[in-house]
Design brief:
By secondary structure, this protein is an alpha+beta fold. The chain has 12 helices and 5 strands. Among the domains are: 147 residues, no CATH class; 76 residues, no CATH class. Helix content is 40%, strand content 8%. The two termini are 60 Å apart.
Length: 344
């Protein structure tokens, strides 16, 4: 005859057909790679935690996971007891409460609250890796998608058919190509390709007859004048600085302007436009402390608990839990006091 094994945990109540579901994007989320359900699930947990874990495990995806809703469905325990049980389940590695940053179609970012649940207990390293993967997935899905028309390069323009024409047969022998005359306008090409510093120097002789410069002089002085413009001064500022206080007669305009360009070089001011720092990848998943609800990175909240005082309070409560013998001694002492206070 088979021996019947009776679990010490209280049986979880049947799910109500009207169990409230969370808003879209919120609520329960099942973690991947879970083992199949067995009767030995949550066997190492206390009775209350086994009772709550068995109920949560059978909830559908997207079910409301607030303490208030769970307390309505679990009549044996109040909201404080349910909150303590969920904290213990977080420490045991069965759940993590997180905040997820989600961007909708209107480019509006909002935070949704989810509870990731795993029937199979996981350690902190597994949870950190899984939540990091979820964060990368959310970041990739929120990136702007390139439309197909933008991503596909335009087709190349059809080439015009080439018609090869045979050389005309003439009785005149082919003449040699005459030697082309040298380019008569190198200065015009140089002026068209010149920068603003070169043009500013070239106009000095027209604005002031005492400063006539040749093309070679402008080419030699252009690097110095370009340094002025690189330091944020305008063409008018450069021109006024070079022409102010000139003597009546200038024997060597190029030498005078070189000396002024060097001696009156303006100071270099810090740029108003600071180079933008490379933005760090936005973190779209933050774990909430199961005790106080404080958000933080997954690796900063091991077991789903933030640093002191929540972690110390949880460990202190487990270490200082009263033993059955102590509880019996307190009850006996209170009974003795009541007997002594009874009237004779």
């Amino acid at each position: 005859m088979a021996t019947q094994h009776i679990s010490s945990a209280l049986p979880a109540p049947a799910l109500s057909a009207a169990y409230p579901m969370a808003n879209p994007g919120y609520g329960k989320r099942s973690a991947p790679q879970q083992l199949p359900r067995t009767r030995e699930d949550f066997a190492l947990l206390p009775t209350r935690e086994r009772y709550v874990a068995g109920f949560v495990d059978h909830l559908p995806e997207g079910a409301a996971m607030s303490v208030k809703q769970l307390a309505k469905q679990l009549p044996l325990y109040g909201q404080q007891a349910i909150s303590t049980a969920l904290t213990a389940l977080s420490v045991a590695g069965h759940l993590r409460r997180v905040r997820c940053s989600v961007t909708n179609a209107s480019d509006e970012t909002r935070w949704v609250y989810r509870t990731f649940w795993s029937r199979t207990a996981r350690d902190n390293e597994w949870w950190n890796t899984y939540l990091a993967t979820e964060n990368s997935t959310l970041s990739a899905s929120s990136a702007p998608n390139t439309s197909a028309s933008d991503a596909t390069p335009p087709p190349p323009a059809p080439e015009e058919p080439r018609t090869e024409q045979a050389p005309e047969a003439t009785g005149v022998p082919q003449q040699r190509t005459p030697i082309q005359a040298p380019d008569a306008a190198p200065a015009q090409r140089r002026t068209a390709e010149a920068g603003p510093a070169y043009l500013a120097l070239a106009r000095l002789g027209r604005d002031d007859h005492r400063l006539p410069l040749s093309a070679n002089d402008c080419t030699a002085l252009e690097p110095l004048a370009a340094q002025w413009l690189d330091r944020g001064v305008s063409i008018d500022y450069l021109t006024n600085a070079l022409t102010a206080g000139l003597p009546t007669q200038v024997d060597s305009p190029a030498r005078l302007l070189r000396r002024r360009l060097i001696d009156k070089m303006p100071p270099r001011l810090p740029s108003d436009k600071t180079p933008p720092d490379t933005p760090a990848p936005a973190r779209r998943i933050l774990v909430e402390c199961a005790e106080c609800g404080r958000p933080g990175r997954p690796e900063a909240l091991p077991d789903g608990l933030c640093p002191p005082p929540c972690r110390e309070a949880q460990s202190g409560a487990a270490e200082n839990a009263p033993q059955p013998a102590e509880i019996a001694a307190v009850k006996a002492h209170m009974t003795n006091l009541r007997d002594l206070l009874k009237p004779v």
